[in-house]
Specification:
Helix content is 46%, strand content 14%. It is α/β, with parallel strands linked by helices and 565 residues long.
């Protein structure tokens, strides 16, 4: 049985001890903090786990993993002590994300036995790591290091230091923006995490991920990034500073942005009423707009059992929308997700036509037309004139002011934003945007409807970009700018983001998927609404759009590929 020592039982050290124990190793954990030892004992205690406060207790270890904070002096001191006190053949893994492994190896006094270990997300949540050798390390030491990491259930990947550093810088700036939104009170921690997890298809919300890595670890990394780049994006959020100073360091201490139980699992927050109002009754709905979003929302409504009228500009467009919804439902039947009888029943709830007068008996009408204030104003006024008193009007705008949309109607109290994500039948997130006018019962009805549709609603204030676009598009813009500042490539950054941080796709693949012209338009809208003019779209993005390279729809963008694939 391999005996492995772990020095430093923070997020990474505890996670490594957990997975090593689960895979049959004997683990000796060392930490100077008695409270940390008690917590690890409660979470992981067993016959193969030994806990100690002194490095001398690691004499039996075949390999020792140093998982201390990113401080060269601290790591150097501990590595030298380990080299002096452990058996001559003991191998040392130093877990560092920013420091030079070669310098640490030399400083240890045993450079032939020191190997670098780099996780972006600590185990058991992170499943990939890199081993960083030096020209001085012996083949035997590197072989044992590889064996130990594989015993931890970790897949070894060769991403290269620069791509991982670039990916880390991008994601830490993204986390920092999210923390600033929380600090402003723009949305709750739970809603911020849910919005970005569901809206971007992430494995972890950014604040949950921050808790897993450790708030102190991320703050130290942000300081390092700010010192090396001078960018304000890396000035740690004041909220992060306050939490670290209070000792709320994340999962490892049981409290960070979320609270964690004795097993290290997130404790759900107390349930609060989403609104002081009682939901209004919804018996029938309307959708104005026969494009991709309008059709998708209408499909979601009728599948949920709500009779819906879809209004298009012309009879031909109305019939085409109906046929496309029919085709979408037919595909569900072919996939075994719906019976033929259910499909017929669902379609019977859909009416497609023209003219606002067809919306007279709707209890809620969802506007889903082009992101142009003149167009939306005309549509909203048409809806307002046609629907009954007490009917709710929802706008799906993603970039315009919901307040401005409400103010063109005669009933701003009855207007709310419901930002569905595309494709609406698939995406589970809806950003619910109330204005200072929105009545409590309208807000309550929006939440009740979103729940009825089996989607997750998150509350946010009326500001350009809401939650997802406000965080996502600056991150995409940062990725483009990084190409001009570093020697990392599009492929390297995309691969590092997907592999190290479990994202469904890298930033450049995502840009090409969204469309570079759409991405540019959103960034310009965000920039125009910002007092600082940031994020100003990267010049490389402007040039690609100007030359007609718009991503997948044209067959070329940041990547070459087949049109429409």
């Amino acid at each position: 049985m391999l005996v492995i020592g772990v020095v430093g039982l923070g997020s990474l050290g505890e996670g490594l001890a957990q997975v090593l124990l689960a895979n049959g190793a004997e683990v000796i954990g060392v930490d100077s903090d008695l409270e940390v030892l008690a917590r690890v004992h409660d979470r992981l205690g067993g016959s193969r786990l030994g806990l100690a406060t002194e490095l001398v207790d690691l004499k039996r270890a075949d390999l020792v993993i140093e998982a201390l904070p990113e401080d060269f002096g601290v790591k150097e001191t501990v590595l030298r002590q380990l080299a002096d006190q452990c058996a001559p053949g003991t191998v040392f893994l130093t877990a560092t994300s920013t420091l030079s492994v070669a310098k640490l190896a030399i400083a240890s006094g045993a450079p032939d036995r020191v190997v670098g270990l780099r996780y972006s997300i600590p185990p058991p949540y992170g499943r990939h790591a890199s081993l960083i050798g030096t020209s001085m390390v012996s083949p035997e030491a590197f072989h044992l290091a590889r064996k130990a990491v594989r015993l931890a259930g970790t897949e070894l990947v060769s991403l290269g230091c620069r791509p991982v550093e670039a990916a880390t810088a991008l994601l830490y700036a993204c986390m920092n923006r999210t923390m600033n939104l929380a600090d402003e009170g723009y949305a709750t921690v739970e809603d911020l995490d849910a919005a970005l997890k569901l809206g971007c298809g992430l494995k972890f919300g950014p604040l949950h991920l921050l808790d897993l890595i450790g708030l102190d670890t991320v703050r130290n990394a942000l300081h390092h990034l700010h010192d090396s780049t001078g960018s304000a994006d890396y000035v740690p959020s004041p909220l992060l500073d306050r939490k670290v100073e209070e000792g709320h360091l994340g999962r490892k201490t049981g409290r960070g942005f979320h609270r964690y139980d004795g097993r290290g699992e997130i404790q759900p927050p107390p349930r609060n009423r989403v609104s002081d109002g009682e939901p209004r009754e919804i018996r029938r709905a309307g959708v104005v707009g026969a494009g991709l979003m309008g059709r998708g929302i209408a499909e979601v409504l009728i599948v949920a059992g709500i009779p819906t009228t879809l209004v298009a500009r012309t009879p031909d467009k109305a019939e085409a929308a109906r046929q496309q919804i029919c085709s979408s439902l037919t595909r569900l039947v072919q996939k075994g997700r719906m019976s033929e009888q259910d499909r017929e029943d669902v379609l019977a709830r859909l009416t497609a036509g023209t003219g606002y007068e067809t919306l007279a008996d709707a209890d809620i009408v969802i506007e889903a037309v082009a992101e142009d204030m003149a167009v939306k104003s005309a549509v909203l006024q048409g809806i307002d004139a046609a629907v009954k008193s007490g009917a709710i009007i929802a706008t799906t705008t993603s970039s315009l002011s919901v307040t401005d949309c409400a103010n063109v109607t005669s009933r701003p109290r009855d207007v709310i934003g419901l930002h569905f994500f595309n494709p609406a039948p698939v995406m589970k997130l809806v950003e619910i945007v109330r204005t200072s006018h929105t009545a409590d019962d309208v807000h309550a009805t929006a939440h009740a409807l979103v729940k009825w549709l089996r989607k997750t609603g998150v509350d946010c204030a009326d500001r350009v970009g809401f939650i997802v676009n406000h965080v996502l598009f600056p991150y995409l813009n940062d990725a483009i700018r990084m190409l001009g500042r570093t020697d990392v490539t599009v492929d390297e950054i995309d691969t590092a983001i997907v592999t190290a941080f479990h994202h469904p796709m890298g930033p450049f693949t995502l840009l090409d998927t969204i469309g570079l012209d759409i991405s540019l338009a959103i960034l310009e809208t965000l920039s125009a609404a910002s007092p600082t003019g940031e994020p100003a779209p990267a010049e490389e993005l402007r040039r690609l759009v100007a030359s007609g390279h718009l991503g997948q729809k044209t067959g070329s963008g940041f990547r070459l590929g087949n049109k429409g694939k």
